[in-house]
Amino acid sequence: MAAKTCLHGGVFSVNPALVKVDFSSNVNPLGISKRVLRSIQNNLNSLFSMYPDPECRELKKNLLNYMDTDLDAEWITVGNGATELIHSFARTFIRKKAIIFNPTFCEYELASKRMGADILFISLKNLNSDYKSIIEKSKDIDAIFLCNPNNPTGLLVSANSIIKIIENVDSSTKVLIDECFIELIDKDPAAYSLISRVKEFDNLLILRSLTKSFGLAGLRVGYMVCNPKLTKQLSTNKIPWNVNGVAQMAGILALKDLEHLTYARLMIKTERSFLQREIKRKMQSFTPRKSDVNYFLIHLKNKDSTEIRDYMLKENGILVRDCSTFTGMSNDYIRVAVKTHEENLLLLDALESSDK
Ligand SMILES: Cc1ncc(COP(=O)(O)O)c(C=O)c1O
Fold it and tell me: In order of start, what are the domains of the chain with their CATH numbers?
């Protein structure tokens, strides 16, 4: 039997014309800030006709200010979304072998395979209990990928658990910690992020994105934080003007409008509790799983995730993420994003009508 390919969700994973509300991609439920949108609209003319800064200098300045660190621009690489940086990381550092804690975001696997690397999948569940064997297995490994909070589970790993791994693997093994959703957790991101520890480890790279937290998925802005030596190595694979001018400006403005993010975080916390409570209270076949962020898994009893996704899409125009296309998962989970209250009511209706 051919190995299953890990795939993305989103509107373009199905017939887009059928989608009324997309619960399969998990971006800021408020989308882009209105203030940011207005400023971009006022500047479109020059943004369209001018070449953007190939070094993203102003954006890097704003990122440093936002992260509140004493790092400088040499510690930052900006990409056309975090996805570009995952591939750039693989092209630069992966030759033979990578470890991926799964189930997780597909792109680590796709980028490593593109480099012809063997992948050792380790269940995220064993991160704490099986720590010694993880270190043992990491000999001769080019890179380790760990997503925090993880996608699709929505769960956080403590900073200490990650540090234990970094401290014990060979210093030639690069450790990529994907923090693309960390700003949307309902705990203090600073207690989980490793940005403040990046100077301590020469092999640590932290991946962030503005596409989720600031609702800029269509514009594509991500960044990597790592020591200047690694930044330089990553830059050898960079294409000039990889981040367009509209995206750079949107990023700069979004980082100045943090109220938008604060408001989204409050909404996520309230709405996730509401959705999980209602699913537990009303439904037989669906059990929501614990999550720390703006999406969560729903376990299916006697139902198939692909069939449920197709049914809800056809009957209600609601798109959920079929988790059977995550490596290491089967057809007994879907993942849903937390959206606005009005949209969440539509999700509950659609789930209820499939709960037979
Ligand atoms: C964990 C994780 N990291 C990175 C990405 C890619 O983000 P970007 O849109 O910035 O490429 C995603 C997208 O879904 C993701 O889930």
Answer: 11-31+259-354 (3.90.1150.10), 34-256 (3.40.640.10)
